[in-house]
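Progress note, sequence design subtask.
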């Protein structure tokens, strides 16, 4: 089974973004995790289209775009244009989630849904068959560098059971507080893709940290 490491550029050095992108290109990472925050859904603002376009110019791997914005339907086409391969929206801001997912797929992108730590997995029961990815937030969205919420293990198990029961092909991604201390256990309970920001970029040798995370995930 494939395991994917998705370094979050939120913790990169924005003054040296190209250098950090090249590091990821050359590393054992699989995806680029791009966090888009609007200051409304989450209490922080990150970056938007011009920066993503600039990232895409250098990034040679899958662009895994995580939207923490209200009313994401307004921008689906724009995110495709700036290079998103996987587009993940939050369940909490999509009253017509089925329509949103179809619109993402119509643009030729993989469609993901993210759940906040308090949102139960069961809300996905009637949409799981349409999803390419489910992102479980293992911290409250908005900031890098927070600690992992332990209840996530239980949610991964519940999601795995729902996916298997529904014959869905959705991948399970976890995001927030991922380190060398929890990645192995998360992988064993069924996580496919791991977002890691501060643990990678604050380490002495980010490329080596990525290799080590990948090794632990593969087991
Ligand atoms: C948080 C973002 C995460 C964040 C993860 O809202 O969605 O992707 O960058 O950062 P760490 O790994 O530092 O918790
Ligand atoms: Zn994220």
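Output:
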């Amino acid at each position: 089974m494939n395991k994917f490491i998705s370094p979050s550029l939120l913790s990169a050095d924005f003054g040296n973004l190209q250098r950090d992108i090249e590091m990821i290109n050359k590393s054992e990472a699989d995806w680029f995790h791009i966090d888009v925050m609007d200051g409304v859904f989450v209490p922080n603002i990150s970056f938007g289209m011009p920066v993503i376009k600039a990232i895409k110019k250098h990034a040679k791997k899958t662009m895994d775009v995580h939207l923490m914005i209200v009313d994401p339907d307004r921008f689906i086409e724009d995110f495709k244009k700036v290079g998103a391969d996987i587009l993940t929206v939050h369940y909490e801001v999509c009253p017509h989630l089925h329509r949103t997912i179809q619109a993402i797929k119509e643009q030729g992108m993989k469609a993901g849904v993210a759940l906040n730590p308090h949102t139960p997995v069961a809300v996905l029961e009637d949409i799981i068959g349409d999803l390419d990815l489910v992102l479980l937030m293992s911290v409250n969205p908005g900031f890098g560098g927070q600690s992992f919420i332990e209840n996530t293990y239980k949610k991964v198990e519940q999601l795995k059971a729902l996916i298997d029961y529904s014959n869905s092909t959705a991948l399970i991604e976890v995001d927030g507080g991922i380190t060398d201390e929890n990645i192995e256990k998360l992988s064993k309970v069924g996580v496919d893709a791991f977002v890691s920001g501060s643990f990678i970029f604050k380490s002495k040798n980010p490329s080596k940290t990525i290799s080590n995370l990948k090794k632990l995930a593969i087991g």
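The longest strand covers residues 31-37. Work on this subtask will continue into the next period as scheduled.
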